């Protein structure tokens, strides 16, 4: 569902801008992603004002910080919306409480630990007449739209997605990612699947998978997935959290007209050897712009497709036990 506000007159636009500029927002789960991405994007948005946070650690400087969602809702400052950046295993209760209290909710990816609980949140949002947004930040990377347009209508012979990084850099000492519901390498690998969904001209479905699970963990450290697109084209996806050196996050499409490479997580687009885009990401600025428009339109955007691909991998994937992983 991709709904934007209807076209407005000048007077309507002024009213819309006044509405969204007055939106007060709280962050629930003020960890690394909230500190590095959400808080700066909110500060620069011009449409939201950060007024509070929930964190068991250090919160944003100069703002009230609460130990739990219930205390925020009952004793915190007045606010209109929340961004939920908690681990997926505990995200549902916080989101349900906020929606039930009439707050608009933005969910950091993945939107939940299960598909069923995200569907239930959608029903709660509708019942309480508020917006729910399951955000996938990689879809807003600089090269995505031009890559999508170039591939549209072309015959693709092969796709390959690679999402490889060092977990010790991106998730230092974060034990929840290895627990049931934490999803392991798919926590970041879903960014690649979301990017592929945004770029590829056809949808794709999983046919087989291999999950490499350390003997002392519940979730995979690496995985290989084979998909088939609706036109029969194959898509191979490789994920690896024990990668050394620079991150390698790229989608490659081989066509009769040449090769497209969308790498650096979508920041750089190269077609037939020519670099067309190489820009730093502003994905979270785009997320908050989208969220403000959804609220103004009275709409939700609930997309669980990348999460569904991961659920399929856990359902049909072959599990291989590999050596223990220690932080």
TrEMBL record:
InterPro entries: Gfo/Idh/MocA-like_OxRdtase_N, Gfo/Idh/MocA_oxidrdct_glycsds, NAD(P)-bd_dom_sf. GO terms for molecular function: nucleotide binding. Residues 23-132 form the Gfo/Idh/MocA-like oxidoreductase N-terminal domain. This is Galactose 1-dehydrogenase. It comes from Martelella mediterranea. The lineage of its organism: Bacteria, Pseudomonadati, Pseudomonadota, Alphaproteobacteria, Hyphomicrobiales.
């Amino acid at each position: 569902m991709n709904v934007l506000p209807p076209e407005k007159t000048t007077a309507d636009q002024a009213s819309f801008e006044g509405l969204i500029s007055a939106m007060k927002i709280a962050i629930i789960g003020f960890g690394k992603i909230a500190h590095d991405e959400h808080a700066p994007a909110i500060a620069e948005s011009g449409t939201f004002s950060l007024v509070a946070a929930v964190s068991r650690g250090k919160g944003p400087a100069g703002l009230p910080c609460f130990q739990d969602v219930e205390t925020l809702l009952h004793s915190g400052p007045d606010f209109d919306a929340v961004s939920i950046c908690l681990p997926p295993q505990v995200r549902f209760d916080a989101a349900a409480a906020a929606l039930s209290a009439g707050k608009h909710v933005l969910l950091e990816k993945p939107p939940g630990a299960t598909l069923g609980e995200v569907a239930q949140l959608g029903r709660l949002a509708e019942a309480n007449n508020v917006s729910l947004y399951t955000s996938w930040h990689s879809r807003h990377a600089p090269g995505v739209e031009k890559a999508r347009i170039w591939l549209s209508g072309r015959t693709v012979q092969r796709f390959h997605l690679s999402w490889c990084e060092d977990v010790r850099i991106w998730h230092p000492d974060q034990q929840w990612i290895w627990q049931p519901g934490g999803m392991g390498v798919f926590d970041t690998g879903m960014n690649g699947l979301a990017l592929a969904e945004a770029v590829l001209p056809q949808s794709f479905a999983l046919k087989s998978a291999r999950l490499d699970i350390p003997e002392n963990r519940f979730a995979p450290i690496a995985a290989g997935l084979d998909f088939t697109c609706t036109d029969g084209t194959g898509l191979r996806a490789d994920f690896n959290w024990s990668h050394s050196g620079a991150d390698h996050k790229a989608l490659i499409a081989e066509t009769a007209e040449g090769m497209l490479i969308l790498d650096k997580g979508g920041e750089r687009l190269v077609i037939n050897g020519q670099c067309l885009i190489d820009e730093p990401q502003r994905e979270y600025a785009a997320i908050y712009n989208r969220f403000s428009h959804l609220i103004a339109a009275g709409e939700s955007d609930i997309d669980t497709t990348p999460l569904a691909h991961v659920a399929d991998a856990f359902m049909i994937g072959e599990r291989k036990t590999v050596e223990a992983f220690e932080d």
